[in-house]
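Today's session is about reading a structure prediction critically. Students often jump straight to the picture, but the first step is always the sequence itself: look for stretches that repeat, for charged clusters, for runs of hydrophobic residues. Only then move on to the predicted structure, which in these notes is written as discrete structure tokens rather than atom positions. Here is the chain we will use throughout the hour.
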Amino acid sequence: MLFNSLSFLLFLPIVFTLYWWINKRSLQLQNFLLLLASYFFYACWDWRFLFLLLFSTALDYFTGIKMEEAKNKGNKKLWFWLSVIVNLGFLGVFKYYNFFADSFATALSGLGIQANFWTLKVILPVGISFYTFHGLSYVIDIYKGRIQAERNIITYSLFVGYFPLLVAGPIERATHLLPQIKKKRHFDYSMAIDGVHQIIWGLFKKVVIADNCALYANAIFDHYESMNSVSLFLGAIYFAFQIYGDFSGYSDIALGTSKLFGVDLLRNFNYPYFSRDIAEFWRRWHISLSSWFRDYLYIPLGGSQGGMMLKIRNTFIIFLVSGFWHGANWTFIVWGALHAVYFLPLLITQNNRNNLDIVAKGKTLPTLKEFASMLLTFGLTTLAWIFFRAKTVSEASVYIKNMLSFNFDGKIQFLDFDRYAIEFLLILGLFIGIEWSSREKEHPISGRFTTLKALAILTAILILGVFSSPSNFIYFQF
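Below is the predicted structure for this chain, in token form.
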């Protein structure tokens, strides 16, 4: 079930109505309804993978209790590693087995040894990377003594399977979400209205910005060898806004939907394309994943407490693992490595925490230096996005080579379609302006004239949105 589908438009009001009607009766019934709705939501993708979600949930639920009841450290560690190995094992089999098998076969072929490895013929279970990390953080927090094990199976299952965040995040923490699930919730009109507004803004980013950008980005990337430099530059920019509109749009809809049920989720995006350096970009892009790797990988590795070589090693590990988390392809690993290289000068010069505030806070326009820094950061991230979008590293390399050849015949190529070609560039510029003027707020549809803003955005969605067939969100594949 897609957030941008008619089925979700019918599903959400039904669950919302039943949820607040049951609220008068019992918190447990309320949570049980949300859990059933979440499992139905997930089963709409492929009901068979629901059993994998149920197994993962049960494993971590019982592991948490067993670790807490362990009479000695050895038993506690045994249960901890059982959960970690099984969780990562499932993730490895479904997501990475074919990648390692193919890569190993290619390496042997280079040595003159022909090998044919058996590969899996199954699709990747949607959301497995996200709900696996939910469970892992819970188990790690219990092992480290940060939280106590949750004894209520419905409460814990809802923490893992809560439908707004189930398939593409944000990656929640037990310390943040579990207390909200366990506490009786009362309807908050202002919170619900803000949630509706955030949903509208998220839909705008998805169906107007991302899906229109996808039309151009797909056409250009699919025919990059015949494209001139200007078209290739535009293709990279279109994809940069496609993935931002797509993923942050999903996150806005998820956060807005959750607000309808009186639950706050972790913010996942904070206007990342207004970042002045790569370090700031990663504090603003996919925040829940960045903070997860910081807390559960970077800091345990030593973080930034040791010497410079240790810091550099940990930085590269974090970015390479982040790239690999996104998918079983060398393109994602190169994408992660590029960001590590971008981050390196900031780390060495100890300037990685220079830009912690909002750019040009309280001002209409940035300074020339701030504008140049934002433009450079956007250019570097867009260059890296080419590897993220390409099918192979060689394809991305040729794309960049042709893009930087400055071959231009005076024509911008859009192949066989012309959907708002110039008009959409103006819409994209307007979108950037709206986000810039709203960068001190959680989302643009708030503050003064919210009703007019919401109606204007809804009108834009109906006129400019791509509805021919609801498209999947990009991060569903991760």
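Discussion point for the tutorial: The mean pLDDT is 89.
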